[in-house]
Specification:
heterotrimer, A alpha+beta, B mainly alpha, C alpha+beta, A: four-stranded mixed β-sheet, B: mainly alpha, about 5% strand, elongated
């Protein structure tokens, strides 16, 4: 599965466009991580736990989007975008969406 | 020219298949268990540490918070009542072999509250409402001995230590969740504390019975207070789990068992309360 | 004691009504998705045969609130970490509803396809903790085209 965030798949011609596919997820870290993040707010620096959380969420959202693309018979997703929302404090909610395509 | 179409996307890719109730049950059970274990550990540790606070420190602490203790009585009859309570407490303290640096200070309150309590620094408060329900001095001695036993076991300071530690531990979770969740966490967190004080109450009962037996040679009327409470409670019954004190019926049964073991051939007569003790 | 009863009642109400609303919403989403199958959506900007088309911006948005039950379960989940499955279905509903509303606009315009579709989230209630209401807000927008 090829995933790009441009209109095309470089080096391959698109033969079929299968429309919008998307993945979404909501994930959180345990309370200890939230506590540490709060402490880190005093000293500054990278919040490793939350970086990890975002990475995990993004990977999962992309994986779900790929699952949808695979289910409709595509072999690539182009023009992928990410978007976040905020329902719960301390949780990451991510959308990943793009157009499923079939390349030759 | 490429084809453009929108095939149907199957359901269920973007939602986890777990049933919400199963998720809920697992989370509630898991977190409650974790929280209870953590609070037990914290309160046990804090209790053990608090036990080592010297009694002098406890007295100093009580003096700094002591404003809520009843004022010294001003009417002569109230003074007489307090002196009587103090002398009874001193006699009990003598048989209980209280360390000399652990004096018991009795406070009398003319309030109609049906209660007596031991608090920090060896202060014991007895309310007139309680005295009015008691048939004899033996029954009053049992209640006093119970409160003195709390002081001797360092229960007030242990309870304070535990309460403080648990409050601190629970408040560290205050960044988590909203009101409802907080309330729930607090409620679950307090459960082990309640059951802890129940074991303290039972220990105090046992010590008190021994003291009454040593002082009077029998434990007649010892269960009088609890029988009174049982009678009042029979209308509104609350489950034992949520109560600080053990079920009164259990306590009465325990006292009866104790008195059966120390039975005398001829039932001894109870010492009656001095007339001035009853508010009529 | 009354607090506990009140809390359990809220939890039960949240569960019963929340689940009912969710099931109903999903049924309606699936139903309307079938009706609007004719309108295609793509996230690409390059529209084939562009010269012979006319287009307009279409958008759809929706705000869906969490229920008491979901909120509580999510709060618990937040303690241990992991996938907050209670909110996943919420996000899914919001996203599909927003796209559907966008497609309805496209249908009104007479278009057969929507291009360069973007999903955005607004934030009205920033999570329960800040004293706002917990809700998911999704905006979907794109360019609907029809033959000139």
């Amino acid at each position: 599965m090829i995933v790009t965030n441009i209109e095309t798949v470089p080096g391959k011609a698109i033969v079929k466009h299968l429309g919008l596919v998307s993945g979404n997820t909501v994930r959180s870290k345990h309370a200890g991580r939230d506590l540490m993040a709060g402490l880190k707010n005093i000293f500054g620096g990278e919040l490793k736990g939350y970086t990890e959380l975002l990475t995990e969420s993004r990977d999962e959202a992309v994986a779900r989007m790929i699952d949808q693309a695979r289910a409709v018979g595509a072999n690539a997703v182009v023009n992928v975008r990410f978007s976040t929302s905020s329902v719960a404090a301390g949780a990451a909610e991510l959308f990943a969406y793009g157009t499923a395509v079939v390349t030759e | 020219m490429a084809d453009y179409e929108n095939p149907e996307i199957p359901e269920g890719i973007n939602v986890s298949p777990t049933h919400p109730l199963k998720d809920f049950a697992l989370l509630v059970a898991g977190i409650s268990a974790l929280l209870i274990v953590a609070v037990l550990a914290v309160s046990l540790l804090a209790g053990q540490l608090a036990r080592h606070i010297p009694f002098e420190q406890e007295q100093a602490l009580a003096a700094s918070l002591g404003r809520w203790l009843p004022e010294p009585p001003d009417s002569p009859v109230d003074r007489q009542r307090q002196q009587y309570l103090q002398s009874l407490a001193d006699r009990l303290a003598g048989t209980m072999e209280l360390p000399p640096e652990m004096p018991i200070t009795m406070h009398y309150s003319s309030s109609k509250t049906l209660n007596a309590m031991a608090t920090l620094g060896g202060h014991v408060v007895v309310f007139q409402g309680l005295i009015d329900t008691l048939p004899s001095e033996n029954a009053l001695a049992m209640v006093l001995a119970h409160e003195i036993a709390h002081v001797r076991h360092r229960d007030p300071v242990v309870a304070m230590g535990r309460g403080f530690a648990v409050m601190l531990a629970l408040s560290s979770l205050s960044g988590v969740g909203d009101g409802a969740l907080q309330q729930w966490l607090g409620g679950v967190g307090m459960l082990p504390i309640l059951s802890f004080s129940r074991s303290q109450e039972e220990a105090a009962d046992a010590t008190a019975l021994q003291a009454v037996l040593d002082l009077y040679g029998h434990v007649g009327d010892a269960a009088a207070f609890f029988e009174e409470v049982a009678e009042r409670q029979s209308a509104a019954h609350s489950p034992t789990m949520f109560n600080t004190h053990p079920d009164v019926n259990q306590r009465i049964a325990r006292i009866r068992e104790f008195s059966a073991r120390h039975a005398r051939p001829q039932p001894p007569s109870a010492t009656s309360l001095p007339g001035f003790m009853k508010a009529t | 004691m009354y607090d506990l009863i009140f809390f359990l009642v809220l939890l039960l109400l949240g569960y019963v009504f929340g689940q009912h609303a969710e099931k109903k919403h999903f049924r309606s989403i699936i139903e309307r998705e079938k009706q609007l199958r004719g309108i295609l959506t793509f996230s690409e900007r390059r529209i084939p045969d562009e010269a012979n088309l006319q287009g307009t911006l279409v958008s759809g948005s929706v705000v869906i609130s969490v229920d008491f039950f979901k909120n509580f379960v999510a709060g618990l989940r937040n303690l241990v970490g992991g996938r907050v499955s209670a909110y996943e279905s919420l996000l899914e509903r919001a996203r599909r509803e927003a796209v559907l509303r966008m497609k309805e606009k496209a249908q009104d315009f007479g278009a057969a396809s929507v291009w360069n579709v973007r999903l955005e989230t607004a934030s009205i209630g920033k999570g329960r903790q800040q004293g706002g209401v917990g809700s998911v807000e999704v905006v979907a927008y794109g360019t609907a085209v029809k033959p000139r």
